Amino acid sequence: MKLFKKIVVWSLTILNTLIVLAMVLCAFSVYLRPADYPNWSYLGMVFPFFIIATLIFLLVWPFIKWKYCAISIVGIIICWNSIRNYCPFNLFQDVPEGKSLDILSYNVFMFHSYHEGKTDIVDYILNSKADVVCLQEASGVKEEKLFSTLNAVYPYIETGESSGYECAILSKFPILSCESIDLNTTSASCNSYEILAYNDTIRIFNCHLESYKLNDNDKQIYKQIIKRSVPIKRTTQVEESLNIKEGVWWLESKLAKANAARSLQADKLNSIIDNTPNKYIIVCGDFNDSPISYVHETLTKSLKDAYTESGNGPGWSYNRSGMYFRIDHILISKSFISYNAKVDKYGQESDHYPIFCTLEMQ
Which of 15, 76, 232, 343 has the fewest CB atoms within 10 Å, i.e. is most exposed? Predict the structure, then answer.
């Protein structure tokens, strides 16, 4: 009996140690530039699974050998910043009176539902009471009827010239300038705006970074991998069956390619931000990357994540195909304080949920 117990304890110890090491590897993968290490670039996506496994061990060890809780505790301490970025917890705060603005970032899926006769997305934007709204995949925003509807609440609307997915800004404050940022690709878009608020100039970057370009068949492969069902059907020019391993490699090739391209876009955008003289800077949009990624790590070198500062929970902002990730972000300069950031689980008209927060200007 003692031998059996020793075997169980040592087996659990080894497994716990391996899981913690994997969690640490995922957490620190954010420092590996995907353009240089494409095959390591998706480790951040599996980070939550290792957090959960580590916490399970933390709950189990007290019933076996409580001292072995130290393995999980050490791992949590090492990865604490990444854990907080992924799943922060903050107390609700009353917004102080003074210079503040409500900002909403929303990938509106090209207003598909509006053009099909539904007004849910537009009604949501108008009822949000946001002072500034940054939209991604906003093609059609200048269509006469849609523009006039939005313009009734937002007197200032700019789109800029986009080479990829169109970005737009709606503002209750005057827009002083609008400039398109060239990210050296036709698959991403970024606009830079200056708005005048409370006699101060705020620089806002609104972007849609490289997409994974997963089609319906790719998403079906992902679902089948998660469910461990076989065979997997992939449709290209012909239909062929893939086993789980082949399905994983198929998706990995797409993820690695997109992550590599996005890392270059993040490098360039970060360089521009570093050379921006404005005291007040906001970077928001659809980054197509989670908080545990090279892109997020790069863009938060000199900025803060508003959701990490004042949000709660994982805040998944993508709502399709069982892919639960927060890929929409609002980043702010240190001259802002964030209050009550949230991903609003609103509707299914878009494949993204909107992200909202209140910013106080210091």
Answer: 15
